[in-house]
Structure prediction request, 590 residues.
Amino acid sequence: MGGRKTITPGGVVAIVISALVMLAVLAPLLWLFVSSFKSDKEVIAYPPTLLPQDWTLDQFEAVNHSLPIAKMFRNSLIFAGGVTVISLLLDSMAGYAFARLDFKHKKLWFAVVLLTMMVPFQILMTPLYIEEHYMGLLDTFVGLILPRATSAYGIYMMRSFFVRLPVSLEESGRLDGLSEFGIFRRIMLPQCLPALVALGVFHFMNNWNDLLYPLMLTSSTEMRTFSAGLAMLVGNKVIKFGPTLAATLISILPVLVLYMFGQRYFREGIASTGMKE
Amino acid sequence: MPALATVGGAAGAAGSARRRRPLSRRRHAWVFLAPSAVILAVFVFVPLVSSFVLSGLAIDVFMNDVSFAGLDNFRRLVGDQRVWGATLNTLYFAALAVPAQMVLALAMASMVSRNNRWCRLLRSVYYIPFVCSMTAISIVWSILLDPNMGALSYLTRQLGLGAIGFLKDPALAMPTVVAITTWKGFGYIVTLLSAAILNVPASLDEAAQLDGAGPIRRFVQITVPVIWPTIVFCVVTTTIVSLQVFDQVYIMTKGGPHGSTETLVAYIYNRGFQTAPYDLGYASSIAVYLFAIIAVITFVLRRFVLRRGEDEV
Prediction:
């Protein structure tokens, strides 16, 4: 009785609706893509053209002159990449300690860590700014990366993976005479590779896309990330639509490419707790 | 607890290593924890505590003129028209955005929660806007909606509706921002809901089918109750994120027209970092006020609104 495969009228309706929604999701993004290849005249043509009459790379050349695109790309890469690499190391170390090592008041400390997950960023924002001002970290990469170098979410996620590993793994390392850190690095950490990739993708995406945080902590054009830079520059209306579109397309490409090749990891990252910063 | 149990069990089984291990493990634990502990202490706990202190101070962005303001900031907040406007706008946004995303996501999840190629494709496409930055999405939509040359305005004109200034009309601006937020975010919720739906035992559904229940009734009466905890989770997280809305408003409307889309976070940012005299103390007290709103709404949602049966929530 289980697998009735006949297509019901309701099923047809569902297919049609879900396909229409897919179209509605894709259309603006496809429009962004094709419009980035239009000429100046065509971008603002009215009535608008659907596809470029002749595909041109003009906008990508223009974007170099009108926006510090290379710098923004570099800044986002250093910021998001730096946060990802460092927090993977620190999150997994702390997660490992909570999962497999003994220390006093472990449960209490873990509860304290989880509590930090509940605090909205806005409440930390102003004090964080003042703190970085006194530490001389405003408008620097260190100032951008350090506050994000570990997170309750990451510690929680890594802990839940380390907890599941069998004790026999640790035992074998201990018999081989490895130090506690050696066991962590050589034996336990490699077991968590999928979790590490999922967490890394999560950190990279969130920081690459973040706006308020880098907007507040950077002030020079020199240090603006993609999101913050685009937000500032688009606002002042001196930049034409064409280069804006090209820059926007470039800004979403890295995460989009990551998503195309590693969808599974995007889903795993959110499936374990589903938190979004 | 399970971690402690396995450690204890292993020590019992491994004999001679028993006495040494807990000691060395204790000594090493701090090495593993220290970096994270320092960062969380310096960049989360200190700001958290000082946020409450700060809201009692008068301090500007250049760190001159620090003085104690007591409850002045909060008194000022109560009398600030823009705080009230921003509060209402924020609540309005959440009241529209949460149901919109949940209803759309539930409807779509009911259609695409199957393990075949087509449904998997749909789910991954729905998720695409979620991985793009809100900055990029906001730029794309504000150009599309431009009343003079946007492609959507062209469509509305063709349909005989004239050029609609979706983001320029005080009555339309917020619903438009909500629609774009929904477009960007629903795929994420679909992913979470689908994962839950795919775990619903097929036997439940089949039994209802034998009883002659149609697909919509089966979804409402069987699937929804079973995945209720996931729904609650989605509603609560979407609500929290919605009450903190900033990016889309900052880029698409700058809080306008006539303050009709200025949300609390936008106002906090504006007060502390955008408009002289960069009043950080006051900005901080608005943040504390927002925190209280989020806490109360989350509590009420979990405790009263989303209750169902005895055991959930």
